[in-house]
Structure formats: C-alpha cells, structure tokens
C-alpha cells in the first residue's frame, strides 16, 4: 500500500494542531501543511471541517479526519511502530489520559484569556488542580511517563510548552511544585519533533493573540512572552 498523502490544516498557535505536528514530526511522516486564519477561515475550510475547528487532516485529497486525538491515532497507525500500548486496557487508559489533557488544555486557555480578575483566579485554581492530579498520577504510571515517547507525550508537550513560556506570579505552573512534569518537559523540549512543531516566532504570535483579548491578564501574559 502506498503511503497516504497527508494534508494538515493548521492555525499557528493552536495546541491541538501542535499535537498532530509533533506526531507527524516524530514519525518522520511526509505531509503538506496549510495555515488558515481562524478569525476569517476560507470557505473550503468551513465546508470540510465538520466542527469548524482545526486540526483537520485531509487524507489522499478527499477523506477528512477531525479531532486531534483521532488524527494522531491514524498517523500513528500508518507509521509503525505504534506509540500507544497494544494491550486493550493499557491502550484505553492512555486514551483516557489524552482526554484528560484536552481538559487541561481548555483550562489553560481559560486562564490565558480570562476577561477579568475573578475569572483569572478561578481559572488559575482549576488549572493548578488539574496539574496536581497529573503530577500525582505520574508517580507510578507508565502510560504518562514511560521510557519512550508516546501519543500522551504529543498531547502533554503543547500544554507544558505554553506554561513554560507564560511566566506570571499567579501561574498555575511551577516547576518546583511539579517535579515529574517538569522533568518530562525537560525531556520533551529537547526533542526535534517538539521544537519544530511551532514557528520560530511562536512566542510573538501567541503574544499578539493574547493582546487581542479583553482583560488585563492576557496582556500581562503577552508582555511576559515578549520579555522572553
Ligand atoms: N477537540 C478538538 C479541539 C480543537 C479546537 O478547539 N481547535 C480550536 C483552535 S485551537 C478551534 O479550531 N477553534 C475554532 C472554533 O471553535 O470555532 C481537537 O482535539 O481537535
């Protein structure tokens, strides 16, 4: 069977797209990339993306896959060896933690874009609880911190990359409080697949996006990003 033509449709600062880029990079899969502006998406994208969201993966020009977790499993399946456990229960557990990380990604977004002080504090609290649970789980769970890269890592890296960049005194992230997550991030950030999953000016692009939000917290975070 010929290797399928993979065409990923992307928005530069989207953490869900980044998961698929990490997977494509890690698996050294050839792909075509089209960046769109989510604030003004082209008509063809509206027609092809069932939920109006990125990422979508267009396979062989006609079949559209959506939902980053599903896209990643497909990429993984066509580029063996697979990076999910083969045993059904372990595989299901890894998928469950990928879902958990999606919730944490939304919590992070609520924190980054909070419209007022109350919302910012609530979101910081919620995000910190999510990270605490993850840190505890990582103590003895190889689904989360195995010896090798997995699709869970492809999902974890975008979340931790943003926390590492968004320094703020009220950040839910603190490497000293989350040593296992911090160690995993140190390992992940050194991977080419992770480094190459965002544009070189990613911080600036994220800062520009945050500057466009209402509320003072996003602008403070944008300023922190610009300071570097
Ligand atoms: N569950 C989806 C979430 C994707 C998602 O929320 N993408 C955002 C950008 S980061 C999006 O396309 N938002 C546009 C919208 O909601 O209209 C996935 O994992 O792919």
Automatic annotation (TrEMBL):
Residues 4-83 form the GST N-terminal domain. Transmembrane segments: none annotated. Keywords: Transferase. GO terms for molecular function: transferase activity. It comes from the Bacteria. Pfam families: GST_C_2 (PF13410), GST_N_2 (PF13409). Residues 87-210 form the GST C-terminal domain. The keyword Transferase applies. GO terms for cellular component: cytoplasm. This is Glutathione S-transferase. It comes from Thioalkalivibrio halophilus.
């Amino acid at each position: 069977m010929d290797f399928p033509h993979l065409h990923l449709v992307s928005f530069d600062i989207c953490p869900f797209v980044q998961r698929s880029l990490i997977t494509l990079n890690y698996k050294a899969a050839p792909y075509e990339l089209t960046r769109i502006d989510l604030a003004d998406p082209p008509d063809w994208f509206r027609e092809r993306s069932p939920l109006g969201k990125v990422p979508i993966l267009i396979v062989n020009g006609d079949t559209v896959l959506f939902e980053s977790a599903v896209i990643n499993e497909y990429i993984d399946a066509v580029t063996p060896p697979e990076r999910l456990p083969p045993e059904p229960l372990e595989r299901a557990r890894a998928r469950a933690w990928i879902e958990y990380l999606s919730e944490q990604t939304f919590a992070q977004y609520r924190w980054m874009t909070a419209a007022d002080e109350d919302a910012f504090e609530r979101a910081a609290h919620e995000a910190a609880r999510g990270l605490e649970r993850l840190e505890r789980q990582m103590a003895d769970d190889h689904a989360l911190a195995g010896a090798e890269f997995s699709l869970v890592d492809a999902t974890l890296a975008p979340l931790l990359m943003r926390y590492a960049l968004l320094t703020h005194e009220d950040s839910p992230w603190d490497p000293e409080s989350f040593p296992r997550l911090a160690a995993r991030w140190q390992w992940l950030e050194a991977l080419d697949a992770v480094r190459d999953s965002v544009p070189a000016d990613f911080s600036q692009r994220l800062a520009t996006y945050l500057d466009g939000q209402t509320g003072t917290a996003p602008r403070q975070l944008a300023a922190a990003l610009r300071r570097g």
